[in-house]
Amino acid sequence: MSDNFNVMEQFGIDVFNENTMRQRLPKIIYKQLKQTIDEAKELDSSIADVVASAIKDWAIEKGATHFTHWFQPMTGITAEKHDSFITPIGDGTVIMEFSGKELIKGESDASSFPSGGLRATFEARGYTAWDPTSYAFVKNGSLYIPTAFYSYGGEALDKKTPLLRSMDAVSTQALRILRLFGNDTVKRVVPTVGAEQEYFLVDKKTYDKRKDLIFTGRTLFGAPAPKGQEMDDHYYGSIKARVADYMKDLDEHLWRLGITSKTKHNEVAPAQHEMAPLFAPCNLSCDQNQLTMDIMKKVALEHGLVCLLHEKPFAGINGSGKHDNWSLSTDTGKNLLDPGKSPMDNAQFLTFLAAIIKAVDEYPELLRMAVATAGNDHRLGANEAPPAIVSIFLGEDLEAVIEHLIDGTNYTTQRAMFNVGVSSLPSFPKDSTDRNRTSPFAFTGNKFEFRMCGSSLNIAGPNTVLNTIVANSLKEFADELEGCENFTEALHDLLVRTIKEHKRVIFNGNGYGNEWCEEAEKRGLPNFRSTIDAIPALTSPKSIKLFKKFGIYTEVELHARAEIHLENYSKAVNIEALTAADMARTEILPAVMKYTGEICSIAASKKAIGIEPSVELALAAKLNDLTVSLNERLEALGDAVVKAQCTEESYAKAVAYHNYVFPAMQELRAVVDELETKVDEKCWPYPTYDELLYNI
Ligand code: ADP
Ligand code: MG
């Protein structure tokens, strides 16, 4: 971007944020809109025209000619269809118009978006509705209006609608708890999220030579480079000039859009990096993360780079995740996971903490399901990312507090804790709690960090689950505590009981390795190793009941989502298999045969002058053996793909891809990667790991 970018002046310049609203809207309208936003209510249609007109004028000044309802269908990425503001007025000229109706609601053909069967039952029409709590912005000449996307019958067709529903649910239940603690002023509780985004950068010219990267986002073949990440010299290492330029440009793009990019650094793997924004309300954070991923890719291209967001672009090298930092905040700005100064605050903190522990222990399968994708299967449980077993890390300090609380001998002391003026909790220094990188769900001082999300994931999914399961715990707490005779006593009993019951999910040790798998099994914690193990949880009677209770998903919506989840998995593996087979057949096999031919002719020439070509013959024989295996494994892969493609029922199909196609691809890869180490690198048809990982 520019040479002299003034951050303070440019930050949020392309966003119709509160500041712009205040400047652009009549006072009374601004007040109404602000209230709509703060209370996450629906916009009153009587003010919509005024708001729309102000947004339009502002957008046009920023160079916009079009507007788009921007939404998040279940493809995992965002969708947009642009309409221009122009309206002909009959004399051959046009004016620029944008009505309140166009701002609030849009209609689009939903038939080409995944609906998981909802389409069959309902009309193909889909509707988009403005989410005023996520600001509109201008990008590439269009006004973007963040919206929710739903069907004619009102079923959610997107990732955002359920997220908004879950935010309402957790707010309602959290407010009940706050009221019990005597807080009558807070009007809304908002889940806050900060998503740390990992990514790889590779050179575009190198990338363009690899069909696997182009079609699947990851390398399907590739022998390890002589140097991997064993030196740990990349993490926080000095950033190369080309990457630094990219990061600077990225920051400027993000800042203009009001995305608070805060931290950037090199990650553990070579060519891997991270960007972390400041946290924001959950839905805004999700929208901004979607936008961030999009911008990361676009800016990379401008730098002759490609940004890889796949969870596992390179075998043997750490994959990329996204840490979803999550907390609950009141509209008055208090973080409910911040242990307070007074004993009453501490009791409230412990109540929310207990609710979360209970939620995670009761619904680990939903958290696991929410992060299950073909790409993330390469990470979870693979000694680099958290294990596939969901557990909670509290850190020593907090664990001691909890032990103390449930320890009968300290009963009276602990009870005294809730009486104002007696003992209080220690504050939890952030650093002492953040050491355990192997935990999937770690308390880090004043928030939880859910670390199982894959780097390309739309975090609306896991946050919908988190909000809902915590709402469920809070509801049960409130149901029990409201109307009890002695609040302090009832609360104490509830907390002790809850923690005792759900303590098994707390694990502060090393999450890697078999010991934990065995220990977790003893504790009865589930271990869903792959996506196909994880998805059925979505439609279990237990989940249906939970989601229905809070109006997050109907049963129909859940089945539709499970269907799409499975379809996405099968499609991803299918594309990988076809790409691998294509590369092996049309690039690798010919290259190997050609090279074998060269070796054989050298052998023949040597023999002709009486030299024994022992090395050449041995190499040619080895190459020939590997070529035979390669051919066999290609056939086996082809058979497995056909079998999977012919399987009708969606779960059985996904299982076929997982159980037969995926292993067949791995088998093929093993031979190809061995061949790579034996063939002259000048003959190898595509760039190797050395070139991909070390040439920026
Ligand atoms: P690290 O995990 O590397 O130690 P930080 O402590 O800087 O990282 O925070 C990681 C992320 O957590 C950031 O995006 C930050 O904004 C976010 N975060 C901090 N406080 C909260 C909160 N109360 N709610 C949600 N996210 C938060
Ligand atoms: Mg982190």
Q: Any idea of the CATH topology of the largest domain?
A: Creatine Kinase, Chain A, domain 2
Q: Report the mean per-residue pLDDT as an integer.
A: 91
Our measurement of the CA-to-CA distance between the termini, rounded to an integer number of angstroms, reads 20 Å
Q: If helices are DSSP runs of H or I spanning 4 or more residues, what is the number of helices? A: 25
How are the SSEs ordered, and which strands pair?
Elements: H1 7-10, H2 18-24, H3 27-38, H4 45-61, E1 66-70, E2 82-84, E3 86-88, E4 94-96, H5 100-104, E5 105-109, H6 118-121, E6 125-130, E7 137-139, E8 142-151, H7 160-180, E9 189-203, H8 204-207, H9 211-216, H10 241-256, E10 261-266, E11 272-277, E12 280-281, H11 282-302, E13 305-308, E14 322-330, H12 343-362, H13 364-370, E15 392-393, H14 396-406, H15 411-417, H16 430-433, E16 441-443, E17 448-450, H17 460-481, H18 487-502, H19 514-523, H20 531-534, H21 541-549, H22 555-608, H23 614-645, H24 650-676, H25 689-694
Parallel strand pairs: 1-8, 15-16
Antiparallel strand pairs: 1-2, 3-4, 5-6, 6-8, 7-8, 9-11, 9-12, 9-13, 9-14, 10-11, 14-17, 16-17
The structure holds adenosine-5'-diphosphate (ADP) and magnesium ion.
